[in-house]
Amino acid sequence: MKEYSGATPRDQQNRKRYTWLLALWALVYLASTYLITFELPDSSWRWIAAGAPSLFAIFAAAAYWRFLQNADELARAIELKALALAVAVGFVVWPASTLLAASGAPISGAMNPTVLLMVACYSYGVIKGRSDYR
């Protein structure tokens, strides 16, 4: 994705770092979900598989924090708007999916759409913000 014209090389490097860590988190999450569901249903290894995504999430959050600390005001404004959209979607989707699951809808913990929708809305917000400031 092309950066807006004001992005510094350091901003670009920091953004790439946390983007790769988020992608790695997503892969580890999917692998953990698969392993827990199909390969390790009665094994104590599933506890390690369940905790692995959180470890990668911590690394991604630290990289994102570094990016925000070093970003210029425009980059921070774009990120803030994108994060606000993602949090708003989370506030709508999480309670609805939780209550739907409790009422018998086929939504399991592993397939809860909240995080996926939040990430999609955050990504949309960043893309929209960058295109607004080109």
Describe the protein in words.
With 134 residues, this protein is an all-alpha fold. It has 2 domains: 8-71; 72-134. Helices cover 79% and strands 0% of the residues. It has 4 helices and no strands. It has helices spanning 9-39, 45-70, 73-102, 114-132. The two termini are 13 Å apart.
Short description:
Helices cover 79% and strands 0% of the residues. The chain is mainly alpha-helical and 134 residues long.
Q: Helical residue percent? A: over 70%
Report, as a whole number of angstroms, the end-to-end distance. Answer: 13 Å
Proportion of residues in extended strands: under 5%
| Main beta sheet strand tally, sense and closure | none
Number of strands: 0
User: How many domain units?
Assistant: 2
Structural class: mainly alpha
* Radius of gyration over C-alpha positions, nearest whole angstrom: 17 Å
Low-confidence residue ranges: none
> Judging from the principal axes of the Cα atoms, what is the shape?
flat
Q: Average pLDDT across residues? A: 84
Work out the helix count. 4
Q: Summarize the helix and strand pattern as letters.
A: HHHH
